From TrEMBL:
Compartment(s): Cell membrane
Membrane topology value: Multi-pass membrane protein
InterPro entries referenced in this protein's UniProt entry, alphabetically: MetI-like (IPR000515), MetI-like_sf (IPR035906), PhnE/PtxC (IPR005769)
Limits of the ABC transmembrane type-1 domain: 97-280
Domain of life: Bacteria
Family: Belongs to the binding-protein-dependent transport system permease family.
TM regions (residue ranges): 29-49, 102-128, 149-172, 207-226, 233-251, 257-279
Organism listed in the record: Variibacter gotjawalensis
Stored Pfam families: BPD_transp_1 (PF00528)
Source lineage: Bacteria, Pseudomonadati, Pseudomonadota, Alphaproteobacteria, Hyphomicrobiales
Official protein name in the record: Phosphate-import permease protein PhnE
Main subcellular location: membrane
Length: 294
């Protein structure tokens, strides 16, 4: 059955059109003001931070020429024309890369364990004591606020060169970051199992073990895998301050202007991180899918 719409009177249509146009003008004005505020804030930030655009434009050519040198062997040929010469240190670099991955792995495991033990005391729905909860939160903030490289420098002074400073630096930073993420997961759990465990006389550790952990374990594992991927990149930088791994060879190649070595090591790091990213992404999706089905 065909239907027809009755046309509005001309005066009514003109009033509605005017109101619509006025509303759109107001929205465009707000958008322009917001954009102008962002631009002004960016310019002010650059001025306060003494960002020199003239220097940037003057040296932008040197930036791109560095990449050209990275793609050139000492003989003057392009690196891809002689792969054996380009990756002459593949065996040594592979062992150092494995060392980097092990540093990241151990640091992630230790840090995740620390974050797991602290996250429940930092959760507002499980820790009613304000002083304990905020003390744990501030401690986690301290762990993740201090950059890993600063921790590594401190531990290099204390323990000497080698992988131990790298492991400790990554573990502390990971505990702070994962403790924060874990506590946010815990604060969003279903409280009915918790209430059931408490009403049946369960202690605080029993309540955590039987009512909380089963709800959050898949998300915890997912965040831990994501953190491992991040830590592999972080562990590569730890070597810059003598904390073990392939970073030591990378910084040596940079300082000695061994351009083809720099590009070869960077390519190995990038390839390794990409493989880890693909594997952990698949695992994370499976864990979150399994967690969603429970």
């Amino acid at each position: 059955m065909a239907t027809s719409l009755k046309a509005l009177p001309a005066e009514r249509l003109a009033a509605l059109s005017g109101a619509y146009a006025s509303e759109m003008r107001a929205k465009r004005l707000n958008t322009l003001m917001f954009g102008a505020a962002i631009v002004i804030a960016a310019i002010a930030s650059g001025w306060i931070a003494e960002v020199n655009l003239t220097k940037f434009v003057t040296h932008i050519g040197a930036f791109f020429s560095y990449f050209d040198r990275l793609a050139t062997l000492d003989t003057g040929a392009r690196v891809w024309t002689d792969i054996a010469e380009w990756f002459w240190g593949l065996k040594k670099w592979s062992l150092l890369l494995l060392d980097t991955m092990l540093i990241a792995y151990v640091g992630t495991i230790v840090g995740a364990l620390g974050g797991f033990l602290l996250c429940f005391a930092a959760s507002s729905n499980l820790m009613p004591n304000w002083w304990i909860r905020n003390a744990v939160k501030r401690f986690l903030e301290f762990c993740r606020t201090v950059p890993e490289i600063v921790f590594a420098l401190i531990f290099v002074i204390a323990f000497g060169l080698g992988p131990i400073p790298g492991v400790l630096a990554i573990a502390i930073h990971t505990a702070g970051a994962l403790g924060k993420l874990y506590s946010e997961v815990v604060e969003n759990i279903d409280m009915k199992p918790v209430e059931g465990a408490v009403s049946s006389g369960g202690s605080w550790p029993e309540m955590i073990g039987f009512a909380v952990v089963p709800q959050v374990i898949s998300n915890f594992a997912s965040y831990t895998l994501l953190r491992f991927e991040i830590n592999v990149r972080g562990a590569a930088v730890m070597g810059f301050v003598g904390a073990g791994g392939i970073g030591q060879d990378l910084i040596e190649a940079i300082r000695k202007f061994y351009y083809s070595d720099v590009s070869a090591i960077l390519l190995l790091i990038i390839g390794t991180v990409m493989i880890i990213d693909l594997v952990t992404e698949r695992l994370r999706h499976r864990l979150l899918g399994a967690g969603g089905q429970t």
